[in-house]
């Protein structure tokens, strides 16, 4: 099977590799200018490399590259060649740009609020990683190991990554003998994950709604006429009374939702109403592919 294949030297090919280059440089800046100098360990291989840099003065980028080699080989043997050339290029560019930045300017002695620096570093790293993920590549590291554990032991990828990142942060706390470092590391990890979510899925500006009510005719007229939004009308059955019901599903902005809730409150006291985040909505009146 051909994983992550795309025709070379096409417009899409150049766009993807340019995104990988951008993402590699941006996350390298986050590590070298904000996280590594302050001994902030954001988990993963870069967390291990940060520890090795401060303990033994080993180059950060080179160590990340070296540690990724057995993981990639191991991943290909267990999972197949799903990582593709883009993942390898991303790993190489990120490691190379990290060491080039350190070689050019050194690891700066930064002063100021560590909390702010952990947030800024996390934002840069998260945005850089998200750019690489948009090309259907990965950044290697613990993600490969997590996929292997999922294949072998059926442990969820999220739990494996959380466990391995926590172990790296704990190692940093013990070796640096600084409990505060764990707090700043956790902040940077949170910033990385949130920025990645926003970059990949967008801000949750819209809210999805699911409405179950006997007054569905009035509600659908309100949504269609006053708010000029579309909706989906489904047939369902109530669990408690086993009666046939009509279910309305739609998506509104936060402002529109506030108006609708006030209307529903005065319309039907027995209404069943569910609100959920809608990260991406494609269709007439929203956005197009």
> Strand sequence of the main sheet, in spatial order?
2-3-1-4
Head-to-tail CA distance between termini: 28 Å
Mean pLDDT over the full residue set: 85
DSSP summary: helix tally: 10
Beta strands, count: 4
Structural class by helix and strand composition: alpha+beta
Helix proportion range: 55-70%
Low-confidence stretches: none
Largest sheet: 4 strands, antiparallel
Q: What is the overall shape?
A: elongated
- The SSE order reads HHHHHHHHEHEEHE
Taking all Cα atoms into account, the compactness measure Rg is 24 Å
Beta-strand fraction estimate? 5-15%
Task: Describe it.
The chain is α+β, with helices and mostly antiparallel strands. 62% of the residues lie in helices and 11% in strands. It is built from 10 helices and 4 strands; from the N terminus they run H-H-H-H-H-H-H-H-E-H-E-E-H-E. The protein has helices at residues 11-35, 44-56, 60-79, 84-105, 114-133, 142-153, 157-176, 179-201, 216-226, 254-267, and strands at 206-212, 231-237, 244-253, 272-278. The protein has a 4-stranded antiparallel sheet with strand order 2-3-1-4. Helix 2 (44-56) packs parallel to helix 7 (157-176) and helix 7 packs antiparallel against helix 8 (179-201). The two termini are 28 Å apart. The model has no long low-confidence stretch (mean pLDDT 85).
């Amino acid at each position: 099977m051909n994983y992550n294949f795309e025709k070379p030297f096409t417009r899409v090919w150049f766009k993807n590799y340019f995104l990988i280059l951008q993402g590699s440089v941006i996350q390298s800046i986050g590590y070298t200018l904000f996280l590594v100098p302050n001994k902030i360990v954001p988990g993963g291989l870069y967390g291990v490399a940060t520890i090795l840099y401060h303990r033994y003065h080993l180059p950060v980028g080179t160590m990340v590259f070296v540690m990724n080699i057995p993981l990639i080989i191991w991943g290909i043997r267990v999972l197949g060649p799903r990582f593709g050339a883009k993942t390898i290029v991303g790993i190489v560019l990120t490691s190379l740009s990290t060491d080039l930045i350190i070689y050019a300017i050194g690891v700066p002695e930064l002063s100021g609020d560590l909390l702010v620096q952990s947030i800024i570093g996390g934002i840069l790293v998260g945005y850089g990683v998200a750019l690489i993920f948009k090309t259907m590549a990965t950044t290697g590291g613990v993600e490969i190991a997590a996929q292997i554990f999922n294949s072998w032991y059926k442990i969820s990828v999220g739990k494996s990554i959380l466990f391995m990142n926590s172990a790296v942060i704990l190692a940093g706390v013990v070796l640096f003998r600084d409990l505060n470092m764990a707090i700043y590391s956790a902040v940077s990890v949170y910033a990385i994950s949130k920025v990645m979510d926003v970059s990949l899925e967008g801000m949750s500006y819209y809210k999805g709604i699911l409405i179950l009510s006997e007054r569905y005719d009035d509600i659908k007229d309100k949504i269609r006429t006053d708010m000029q939004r579309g909706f989906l009308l489904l047939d369902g059955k109530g669990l408690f009374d086993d009666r046939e019901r009509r279910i309305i599903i739609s998506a509104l902005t936060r402002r529109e939702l506030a108006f609708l809730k006030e209307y529903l409150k005065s319309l039907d006291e027995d209404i069943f109403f569910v609100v959920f985040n809608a990260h991406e909505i494609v269709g007439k009146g929203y956005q197009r592919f």
